[in-house]
Design goal:
Largest sheet: none
Keywords: Membrane, Transmembrane, Transmembrane helix
Protein name: Small membrane protein
Pfam family, one: MtN3_slv
Distance between the termini: 53 Å
Number of helices: 4
GO cellular component, one term: membrane
Shape: elongated
Transmembrane segments: 6-27, 39-59, 65-86
Oligomer: single chain
Helix content: over 70%
Number of domains: 1
Radius of gyration: 15 Å
């Protein structure tokens, strides 16, 4: 396998793993909604991080789609988790 093909596959696999990492917030969101509140700092910082990486990947001259798609779901899942950490 040549280096270009390897990097392409590595980007896809890393993107899927990153998306799964943020989808795993669903369990914490459910716990938060049932009154078992988690700490809000980590999901907030993750949301900011994902936002910055998504903006970077989208607006650079040659868009970096694996980085964008790996972080874009994290924007929503992280901030949803953060917002549900409080007993509004």
């Amino acid at each position: 396998m040549n280096e270009s093909k390897f990097i392409s596959w590595l980007g896809r696999i890393a993107s899927v793993i990153a998306i799964l990492m943020y989808v795993s917030y669903i369990a914490q969101i459910i716990n938060n909604l049932h009154g078992n509140y988690g700490a809000p700092l980590q999901p907030f910082v993750a949301g900011v991080n994902c936002s910055l990486w998504s903006i970077y990947a989208y607006f650079k001259k040659d868009r970096d789609w694996p980085v964008f798609w790996a972080n874009f779901p994290g924007v929503f899942f992280s901030f949803a988790t953060f917002l549900t950490c409080f007993p509004w």
